[in-house]
Write a structure and sequence with these properties.
135 residues, mainly alpha, 6 helices, 0% strand
């Protein structure tokens, strides 16, 4: 998938096919991707916040708390390969259909390519996601 296939104004940024639980799982999956190389690019952060904005929230504070929870959880699971694998497997269960799994994989790939510099660690994470999600 070409890096230029996604930008923040693209139709691919419509998350209506995901239910709210799937959006939360996608948010955490993207956060894990951000932690893959320990370099948090602004373009990755913007993508994460776009998914966050698609979730219903009582207030901006509630949305900020959700983001903090997701990032904290992702940070805990990003520390080892085994933990990343286990958490990715848990998150994959939220996407029962082939099309949803493929879409989640595409979102991870778009996030990792958004800064135009996919590191080796990010590539390894993408391969893990593709293997676990079977896409």
């Amino acid at each position: 998938m070409a890096a230029d296939a996604y930008n923040l104004n693209d139709d691919a940024m419509n998350y209506s096919e995901f239910d709210d639980e799937q959006k939360r799982a996608l948010l955490e999956l993207l956060a894990l991707g951000m932690y893959a190389d320990h370099h948090l690019a602004l373009s990755e952060d913007a993508r994460l916040r776009t998914v966050l904005a698609s979730l219903p929230a009582a207030s901006d504070d509630a949305r900020a708390r959700l983001l903090d929870e997701v990032i904290t959880r992702a940070g805990r699971h990003a520390s080892t390969v085994e933990s990343r694998q286990a958490r990715t497997g848990e998150l994959a269960k939220q996407f029962p259909g082939r099309e949803l799994r493929q879409r989640a994989c595409a979102e991870v790939e778009a996030l990792l390519r958004s800064d135009r510099d996919v590191s080796g660690a990010e590539q390894e994470f993408l391969l893990l996601v593709k293997e676990v999600f079977r896409c």
